[in-house]
Design a protein that fits this description.
Rossmann fold, two-stranded antiparallel sheet, 22% strand, alpha/beta, seven-stranded mixed β-sheet, 9 strands, single chain
Amino acid sequence: MPSIKKNKIKSFLKSIYRVFTTLFFDLHLILNKWRGLPYFFKTIHEYNKKNKNNTTFKLTYSALYPMLHERFDDAGSAKGHYFFQDLWASEYVQNHEINKIIDVGSRIDGYIAHLLPTTEVTYVDIRPINKFHKNFISKQGSILKMPFETNSVVNLSCLHVIEHIGLGRYGDKVNPQGYIEAIEELKRVCSSGGRMIIGVPVGNEQVYFNAHRVFDPQTIINLFSPFQLEEFSLIDDSGSGVIKNASIEEASKCKYGCGLFIFINNA
């Protein structure tokens, strides 16, 4: 019981911190910036001292550009949902030699960028985007009303999108059943024998308004029925990598994992 109470308090404090950083500022980032000030002034002095006889790249105080917190950060961010999800999905596309795919709203600067050198991507989003690569085709449209005929799409992907539908986060209409309608529309356009690459948050089922929903993985499997589940993999709460062919039961115990699904339309 004490452990359960402690976890509830911890979860509540995290919620307060999320709200505070959204409305005001990230306290941790501010502290690291102030922490970096002494080092910044120290390096100004060192640079001027070592560069005093050199006219090239002479330091001028009107051109100061303080970057104060990066030295406390890691070298990069090789972790989390998007990083490993995008690698998993793009690897699947490449391994199955898919040269054309329809994508709905996935991350352009991750998954889509991974695909474009070898795969033609038709990208569907409610927001317009200009063509920036020879293999990139943009179609403005909604996941609730896809611009494709019924049973016409052979390969389709939709990563970290379904959980947002109907929460109003992106200016869409509030609809508590939006995620169900989105899945039904994805199923409508998928052809017989077609496949879908899906990524959504999984774990203890909850809506975190207005950011996203977290689904029990079995909920997603049930909603995509009668499509066959070819693969279920998981990025767990640690966000440290993909667990291939993961346990549905273990995934449902996550707080905020990422479920990676491959569905085949065998109807």
